[in-house]
Every structure is written in C-alpha cells, then in structure tokens.
Design a protein that fits this description.
It is a single chain. The protein has 5 helices and 9 strands; from the N terminus they run E-E-H-E-H-E-H-E-E-H-E-H-E-E. The protein is an alpha/beta fold. The protein has a single domain, classed as Rossmann fold (3-Layer(aba) Sandwich). The strands form 2 sheets. It has a 7-stranded mixed β-sheet with strand order 5-4-3-6-7-9-8.
C-alpha cells in the first residue's frame, strides 16, 4: 500500500486494467523510442505499469494534481527503479489536441470515450503503434454514454488493423449500446 500527502492510497487504485497488463508489453515494444500517451489517465494506474516496462509515458488529463503528488513520492522512494512519468494537462473536451502527426508510439484510452479523439489518435500514432481502447463498463446508467454496436469499429476502420475487438451488449432491453475493447495497430501511413 502506498501513502501520499493526501493519505493512504489502496493498491487497487493503482492496479492497471486487465487490457493493459495483457497487451501493454506488445504496445511498449511497438512504441520503440516514442512515448505512449495515457489519455484520461486518472490515477495513472496504466501509465505506471507502462513506465515500469521501460516506456516513456505522457499522462494526459484535465486534472493531474493527485498524480503529480503520487509521482513525486514514487520517485523519492526508489528513483533508480522507476522511469518518471511526464504530464500534459489538457481538457480533452474543450482544448485542441496538441500531439502532432506520428509523434507517439502508443495510446492507451481506458474508461473514457470521446469519439472526436479517434481521428487525432490515428494521426498522432506512428505506423505500427498500438491503440488500446476500453469503454466504460456497462453498469448502472453508464450505458447512456456508450455507443451502438460497431460504432467504435467504424471509427478505427480507415487507419487501424484490429487485433482484438470485443463488444458486449448492455443497457435495458431495446437499447443498442455496447461496451467495447479493442487492440488496434496503426497501419503504415
């Protein structure tokens, strides 16, 4: 269990998503010397995992204060063991996408779905780089923010090869909403 300036942080708060633990090393290898973006990084759980694989990781989120505090503690406790995280504070809804064409080697987008980001992901990813995407789970009213079947597939169709694509129908009877998990590799430009 880690301790931060704001109190105890349970180890569960920093457990990476199953998708990232399963496919993170593949994304890390493909990224080569380019950074991986953790988009809407939250607590940084996925970024920390990727950094421990040796990746340069840029954490992108609207509020990075808690993660910056944790990163300071993480680096103080064993700096030789950890690759430092980089931070880019960004309101993904309101501010323009700042990453240029082919500038990143991978993108992780877990539990945040904003369709307007997908063309930016395609543009910013270098050839062969991975996009690991997982929508919010379909519990409670979350289905209201989920897309219809095959929508995410259509967003990825022009620039990605899908190595994994899973959908699960959620929501009340009659709704056409799905949770989505995808491991998509950027086609050669």
């Amino acid at each position: 269990m880690m301790q931060s300036a704001s109190g105890d942080l349970s180890s569960g708060a920093f457990e990476p998503s199953r998708m990232v633990t399963k496919f993170g090393s593949r994304a890390a290898k493909a990224a080569a010397d380019k950074p991986i973006l953790d988009v809407a990084c939250g607590s940084g759980r996925n970024a920390i995992f990727l950094a421990e694989l040796g990746c340069t990781v840029i954490c992108v989120d609207k509020n990075l204060n808690q993660l910056r505090s944790y990163e300071t503690l993480r680096m103080q406790t064993s700096p030789a063991k950890h690759k430092p995280l980089e931070f880019h504070q960004l309101d993904l809804i309101e501010e323009p996408w700042p990453f240029t064409e082919g500038s990143v080697g991978g993108i992780v987008n877990i539990h945040f779905f904003l369709p307007s980001l997908f063309p930016h992901f395609e543009n910013s990813l270098s050839s062969g780089g991975y996009l690991l995407f997982e929508s919010v789970p379909g519990c409670g009213g979350n289905y209201l923010e989920l897309p219809p079947a095959d929508y995410v597939r259509s967003l990825l169709a022009s620039g990605f090869d899908l190595e994994v694509y899973k959908e699960r129908k959620v929501g009340p009877m009659g709704s056409d909403t799905v949770t989505t998990q995808s491991v998509a590799r950027r086609r050669n430009k």
